[in-house]
Amino acid sequence: MKPLFLNIIPHQCRILSLILMTVISFNAMSVQNSAPYTSAMRYNLAGQLTGTIGPDPDGIGPLKHPATRNSYNGQGLLIEIEQGYLEYWQRENVKPVNWSNNIFRVITIQRYKYNDLGWKVLASTTSPSDAKETLTLYSHDEYGRVKCKSVEMNKAGFWAAFSYPITNVCQGNSAGTDRITRYTYNEFDQVVKIEKAVDTPLEQVYVENIYDGGLKTDTIDANGNRAHMEYDEFSRLIRWNFPDKINVGGYSKSDFEEYTYDNNDNLRTLKKRDNVNTITYFYNDINQQIKKVWPGTASKDVVYKNDLRGLQLKARYGSVTGLGITREYDGFGQLKEETNTTSGTSFVVKSDYDQNGNRTKLTHPDGKYFMYDFDGLNRLTTIGENSNSSSRIMTTHVYDVYGRPIGIERANNVDTVYDYDDISRLSEIKHDFNYSGNKVTYGYEYNPANQMTKLSLSNDRYREDNNVVGHTGDYEVNGLNQYTCVGANTGATNCSGGKSIRHDDNGNMTYDGLRTYGYDIENRLILSNYASLGYDPAGRLHRYSAYPNPTKTLIYDGDALIAEYSGNVLTNRYVHAVGADVPLVSYAGNTVTSSSRQYLYTNHQGSVVAASDSNGNLDYINRYDSYGVPSASNQGRFGYTGQQYLSELGIYYYKAR
What is the pTM of this model? Predict the structure, then answer.
């Protein structure tokens, strides 16, 4: 039986309606135009993505539409990804394959090659001039699993891989420089062995895994150290035995962590490696964590409160009304206010957002605020001090037409410029200080494995003089890969001439030959020589004191340190860019004016290498050795890789504990 509406509409009308709908649909497709914050995706008849077009980030400015183009072979396999930009918007009736070279400007090309079975045998990155910069080859076993992966190092021979069948991937070149990794599997496709540096004198078994019933029971590292895992009847990990410190190849029966779970598979208890302390976790009926209990110290228990979206509203010590953190969110789940009372004083940090979810305003506890502006691609463009008016802009972040950051312009006219090689790897950072003797350019070169092979400095003032090359001495390591002796005389016993290193039962270093260290149950540093440290319920370093200096209270925006207090007195303030570990500006005291700014400058690792005042005069230079050890003359809160440096303790606070 036909539907009623078909019965009452004449056949000729139904045909006319179909024609009109088709015409209207095709017209709608062909008139899709550029619009702010609008991206477009193009597909082929198989539903595969063939192109993407991003919005114009600056309207009538010089930047263009970022774009990518994907190409496929007759099997429907992706063979090429071109990245670049479009001079102007391309309507939907123009297929990406028809984007002409004078419209689509390409910066990098990724190419792939497959065998007759559709298994990938080649991946490369090339420049627009078709210079092949990186090349990785793959071979497979009879089940299609990757057997060997070779990062090719001889650029002169790259062309052959594109022209001839790919064979002997597990064999290196005559120079023995190819980076070959070999994989071995069991009948369940689980990796049981990974070998690295294959077909070179450095060939090694990097890791071995043992399975039982599909579960990994043992893993053995390149030094032969074995860890052992046990599971319950629901395949949940219940014990992790760590390697034996002394007997290589065995695991310790006394050094382990144990885990239990509730009926919903939530972690209920964690028994620590010291075989003394157990942390217990509690959950509500919708599996949200509501409490974390430490043994014997109720004041250190953390009580949580969440909303139905799973957003954490409270994290307090001892009880839901104890000291700690309170959070408020807007209707989109964006954090708009965080109050931290861990120290006994209330510190409130507030955030405002635009319609795209970009945080546009950050208000510090004392009411001072900083404004963030973004372009049409949601990239940070400016940071303003107590305003976003042009007169209060501190930093302007600049991008090229390919979407790469190419500079930071500062209000003190000491700018930073970034440059790139043919496949968009960072090749230069230039800090253009006012006085030529303070200027510095960092240069970088890479090999086909994308490893940095050369780091050049234009100014020796930024080079660490104590970066000793070729330092000799023995380093002793136990079965847990912990250093037990550093810098001993060659062949010496009992660490003669070196420093003995000690660790606690949880694996934390307790003595480095100079200082002693103590930790809490969650492996966070709480004591060192004449120093103590404390944390808020979110696990962030919130307080530390080091004799004879006064106690410092640290306030955060997420994981970014934004303020330091001594008692209730604000001593330092910091402004960060978007992202992790990117400090840009610091202030001493509570004054926020253009004349009180101190600008920070970083290298490729994010390490702060210099600072300048509001007039562009150099305040200081920071230097580091190859391991991040700072020069004795270094200054500022942020140091190596942009981490907090606790100078009184001689350590960095890396957050991940």
Answer: 0.91
